[in-house]
Amino acid sequence: MSELLNRRLALLGKREHLSLLEQCLHGIERECLRVTGEGRLAQTPHPEALGAALTHEQITTDYSESLLEFITPALPNPADTLSSLDKIHRFAYTKLGSEYLWSPSMPCPLPAEEDIPIAYYGTSNIGQLKYVYRKGLALRYGKTMQCIAGIHYNFSLPEKLWPLLKEVEGFVGTDRDYQSTAYIALIRNFRRYSWLLMYLFGASPALDAGFLRGRSHQLEVLDADTLYLPYATSLRMSDLGYQSNAQAGLTPCYNDLSSYTDSLREAVATPYAPYVEVGTHKDGEWVQLNTNILQIENEYYSNIRPKRVTYTGERPIQALVARGIQYIEVRCLDINPFLPMGIDLPESRFLDAFLLYCALNDSPLFADNECGNATSNFLSVVKEGRRPGLQLRRQGQAVDMKEWATELLEKIAPLAALLDESHGIQEHSQALDAQLAKVNDPSLTPSAQVLAAMAERKESFAQFSLHQSQVHAEYFRREPLPAQEQARFEALARTSLAQQAELEQNEVGDFDVFVGSYQASILAISN
């Protein structure tokens, strides 16, 4: 174990600091498609009874009108975060009629591209901006890809932790600078080691054959309706032929916050010839927000993002530049189709230990090929993580994946133990043991279990997924929310509808001018 990690562990293990680790915050965003009883994409509008997707803080839509997104508050105890997510699911099921929430990450059999409905947010300028941005995504990447769902895990370390470490380590600069530097270091380590999460939690080894729309691919045929790779863990996170050419040159390597925000700002301001050719309007209608590499910074696809809560009308990048990094968002987690919410407490406990390891361990800047190696290790594991003898690259050398995974888990163990000690539980260490078992026996991984269940029931991907969706619907419907909770959600829905109506009634100014000033806002940021 590194000297730095040892020192930090000793410091946090002191009685006066131990309770700090109870103050980490956890938030979860879970996306899921609405589907019909036959397991087809629901073509119905976002149910009004769920509230307004534009203004509801917990129930919104992601890309498509049919792609729900459930958002929990950020809470210290992940058990409470999951309880919050559970309630949102139970409420949603009281408003879905005969529809289901699709259980895995990869989509159900989809209609023709033009029949996938883009999420609509009403007539306010901000609502229209969100809609045009999605039209731009359809134009740039196709709608099919935008129907993939995932779980985003938001995590922050206690604000009081940073000044403590900063002082001990003699960092020169402000508390805010230290905090951002530490989060960027966490992100670098996450890039180094996130392949491990794909092995342990990847749950998308197969997909509906229609998903690829007849494109060429390297997948194998499992049955008439299903494509797969025998050793894949997460086809969702593989390239699947969808590499964005525009984003190909965009690899912020996270050496510091300003180089990260600069690279995104540049991408939002740099024209990209094929998009310029299309233009922003067609037949007088907006088709994309601009003709640049990115329309907005959130268009950049990455498996982890530095974040800061934004003020009304503020852009994510403005918030980061003005006030530094507040938390990170892990974006590479598949939805586990065997779990009603797609994630459970043991996974959350392990993620906390893993992220704490990334935060406290040495994190040198990326050397020459290291950024590329991190990407290729990640892609190797998503496509063939369960292949016996799989080799990855570490410091220029080939290394056995299982060997490296075991080593990493051994290094994470003291962090799991420290978290357990601070909470007075054993759940982090138990969660870690469960991951070690998966490394020793690949058949215990969710990806292997998906393929095994499909084989055992002789089901295609779509049949298996619909079956799981029905099982989960029954789980949520069997035990409705207490009347008081149900009433609280009903009130939130009504309030959000009223807020959207008010926004639309009081809207001033022309949409074109609004887009112009929105674009200009990113150019005005000065580091």
From TrEMBL:
GO molecular function: ATP binding; glutamate-cysteine ligase activity; metal ion binding
Keyword annotations from UniProtKB, A to Z: ATP-binding, Glutathione biosynthesis, Ligase, Nucleotide-binding
EC category name: ligase
Protein name: Glutamate--cysteine ligase
InterPro entries: Gln_synth/guanido_kin_cat_dom, Glu_cys_ligase, Glut_cys_ligase
Assigned protein family: Belongs to the glutamate--cysteine ligase type 1 family. Type 1 subfamily.
One Pfam entry name: Glu_cys_ligase
Gene coding for it: gshA
UniProt source species: Pseudomonas fildesensis
Pathway this chain belongs to: Sulfur metabolism; glutathione biosynthesis; glutathione from L-cysteine and L-glutamate: step 1/2
Species classification: Bacteria, Pseudomonadati, Pseudomonadota, Gammaproteobacteria, Pseudomonadales
Gene Ontology terms: cellular component: cytosol
Biological process per Gene Ontology, one example term: glutathione biosynthetic process
Membrane-spanning residues: none
Catalytic activity: L-cysteine + L-glutamate + ATP = gamma-L-glutamyl-L-cysteine + ADP + phosphate + H(+)
EC code: 6.3.2.2
Tree of life domain: Bacteria
Domain Glutamate--cysteine ligase: 10-380
Keyword Zinc-finger found: no
